[in-house]
């Protein structure tokens, strides 16, 4: 389908990455995409309409789709000519931070339902068509937290790990049907997500947590939250640009991290099969804040040491 117009369905386009991606693809100079930009609440469509400008109704159409509602997915897909979706971008998602003692199981289920089952529901509806046509690209906005957990992001990380495990399994079958699957893994991105998560964190009732945990959350996590986004954060447009590159790639990779500043942290996971290294480094970064720099330097040293070690394989030590 190289020169053919591709139908792209994107979820969660009321703001952030979904909105930026929908607009970027609709404005493609070569007009390679017809974008079905979806959102659960059409009352929020104004920012997208404004950003899409005169592409609205031409290369971009706005549709209702709630990833937690099977019927809304079905109705949306049925409204697309021949139900043909060449590229599905599963982007809708939500965050949750804080001590688990202060979160209800219901809140946690909503996160899993949106971030994980949302993807599953989409694929149950769209995958059979793609298999039949033996063509399609499934792009999932995952997160670096789908590879490596972070303090006070327990349930959010779990939801993204679920997505990653699900996709790793599915990718093997997809290959048989000539379908492509790509996980986009951004680090911090400055969007509504960041603002909502921070505000909810600030409002959180911490009375169910012990004093030490509550203080850790308020005085360490929340205190540094903004700064992390300011120093490491990417823009939604930046993530959209990476995503378009992956969509247009001839052989799109299974995983793509969008933030090179973050890559050393996720690489730690693969550097130590015991899994202690990333936990230890994160512990040091969080609880000995002034030592971040030295931890990073140690990490680089360690990588260099490891690569030297692998070059020396087969030779006697020392
Ligand atoms: N921001 C980050 O730091 C970051 C980092 C890594 C990965 N991500 C991932 O990137 C994706 C997009 O997030 P973002 O940063 O662009 O945040 P955002 O601006 O808050 O956008 C999230 C979008 O998902 C939608 N959504 C939530 N629940 C939905 C549902 N049940 N059905 C349909 N849409 C739903 C939201 O709609 P409403 O407006 O109606 O709530 C919104 O349009 C998420 O999967 C997130 O996990 C974000």
TrEMBL record:
It is found in: Membrane. Keywords: Lipid metabolism, Membrane, NADP, Oxidoreductase, Sensory transduction. It catalyses: all-trans-retinol + NADP(+) = all-trans-retinal + NADPH + H(+). GO terms for molecular function: all-trans-retinol dehydrogenase (NADP+) activity; estradiol 17-beta-dehydrogenase [NAD(P)+] activity. PROSITE patterns: ADH_SHORT. It holds the Pfam family adh_short. This is Retinol dehydrogenase. It comes from Taeniopygia guttata.
